[in-house]
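**User:** Hello, beginner here. Are you able to go through the protein record under this note? It all follows right here:
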Amino acid sequence: MAPRDNAPAGTQERELVIERIFNAPRELVWNVWTQPEHFARWYGPTGFTVPTCEIDLRVGGRHRFGMRSPDGQPYSTTGVFREIVPFERLVLTDAPADEHGNPLPDMFETTVTVTLEDLGDGQTRLTLRQSGWPDDTMATHAGAGWNQAFDKLAALLPDL
C-alpha cells in the first residue's frame, strides 16, 4: 500500500486507524507528541484550544488534556502511559475526565498507539490506532477530530 497523507479515519472492530506523513524528522514529530508546550498547540479539532496539557512521560505516568471548544464547552481526558519507545512508539490509555483530571465513572477507556517511522528525506509516517470505542459512531467522530488536529500539526511543524 502506498503511503497516504490526509488519510480518512476508518474503524474496524471499534478501532480507529489513521496514517499521515509529515514533512518533518521523526525526532521533531516525537517532541510535539511528548512535550506539553508543543502538544497543546496542535491537539484537538479545528477551533479548539488546549488550556490544560500535562504529560508525565514515563511508563505509569499520567497525562491530562483539557480542550475548550469555540463556544466555550470544556472537554477533558486522562490516562496512563503504558509503553514508551523513544522516537518510535507511544502507548497510552485515554478516558473522559472531569475538569480536575479524574476519570468519569462508568465511562469507556480507549488505548492509543502512536508509531513513528522515519521515511528519510525529513519525512515521518505517523500511524495512530485507537481501540476500545464503545461504538463506531464515536470512533468516526474521534477520527474527524484527530484528522483536524493532524492538519494543525502539519501546519505547525515548519515553524519548529
User: Anything to note?
Assistant: The CA atoms of residues 119 and 125 lie 7 Å apart.
